[in-house]
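Email to the structure team, subject: F420-dependent methylene-tetrahydromethanopterin reductase model.

Hi all, the expression group asked for a predicted structure before they design truncation constructs. Nothing fancy, just the tokens so they can compare against earlier work. One-line instruction: predict F420-dependent methylene-tetrahydromethanopterin reductase, return tokens.
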Amino acid sequence: MTKPIKQIHLAAHFPGVNNTTVWSDPAAGSHIEFDSFVRFAQTAERGKFDFLFLAEGLRLREQNDAIYDLDVVGRPDTFTVLAALAAVTEHLGLAGTINSTFNEPYEVARQFASLDHLSGGRAAWNVVTSWDAFTGQNFRRGGYLPEHQRYDRARSFLRTAQKLFDSWHGDEILADKDSGVFLANPTPGEFVHRDEFFDIAGQFNVPRSPQGRPVIFQAGDSDDGREFAAADADAIFSRHSTREAGQAFYADVKGRLAKYGRRYDELLILPAATFILGDTDAEAADLAHEVRLAQVSPQTAIKFLEQLWNRDLSQHDPDGPLPTVDPVVGENVVSRGRASVRMYRDPVATANEWRAKAQAENLTTRELIIEVTGRQNFIGSPATVADRINELVQADASDGFILVPHITPDGLGPFVDKVVPLLQERGVFRTDYAGTTLRDHLGLAALQSGEASSSVAS
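Reply from the structure team: attached below.
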């Protein structure tokens, strides 16, 4: 039996604060002025993308008990930006990362229900936890939670929010072309939720929105994060964008769905990915090298190094060899509150791998960091990039990609103008939007009143 051809899902991430964006490039613009968000969103919509993704940051970046500013600082409020973008877009989904560790369910549910109404059913919530004590200092509750407690609270948070979304009732569900799905004669219902994390009761003050609830995203890569996604999420952000790693992650997470009574197609796997385009593959490769040099400055290289070594390396020479001392294993000392060093399950083994690579290829510390933190997932001519994206999706390494350009806000334009038409010609990407809601774009079944995913409803 021939396997059906999958349709590719594409989204765009407005990068904000990180070292992906090359702010020194003359083409780079503001990451906080509204015009930048508008241009980025409207480019994504012109490309018929599923959604725009905006990350939330409740803190500035810290390391070694100090704020550091390698690129640019400042993180505007997610809801404010997405609500404003709802007025200047018509079809594009609006996805925002909102923290479940330091926010409260009633407030977040009210904001997302409002955004779903304002956008006509295009809201999505990336449910994340917070691991660091720096963020905790910004809130009355303070501190931070161990990993298992963070996910326990996140599950309770989402379950509570779902009760609020579903608390309004009506005589019947009506479908309307212009305003989406709504309840006739809606009436507020009471809600009660009491557990170890929340003790709330009352009446929700926002009627049921066009999607019923926002599309739920999750971004955790730990076992707890994967389990949370399999139980409750509509899509999961992944960092596994290569074929082998992507296929392993895809099979693992989708293999967990059955025990929650969910089908294989009820959860989308969407890795983040960057791209570098050139008229030829060789031209793109040269540009990719220049971009990496701009992304990983000497100071940035040291910060990445510290995240593995788990010690202060501010005096280390980025143009010299790797440190001869081993990483500090155990409690994290460079970023307070994190249970383990950044993404490295065995820091000493990883350090030894880096040393072997640096010695074999005669790499300095900075050159090594550029190699191991490579962010260009797709490099080549438009045809090469289109073929590679389609190959990975059809091979079940992902269901699509969340693209992160290295120039903000106009870096998405070349992809939309040159790669999207090729995907459309291959019949693997839409030529126009077929529905009005984000659930339509993602191919997810519409929710009826009171319906929720298995874990949340339990």
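The longest strand covers residues 93-99. Residues 147-165 form the longest helix (19 residues). Ping us if the truncation boundaries need rechecking.
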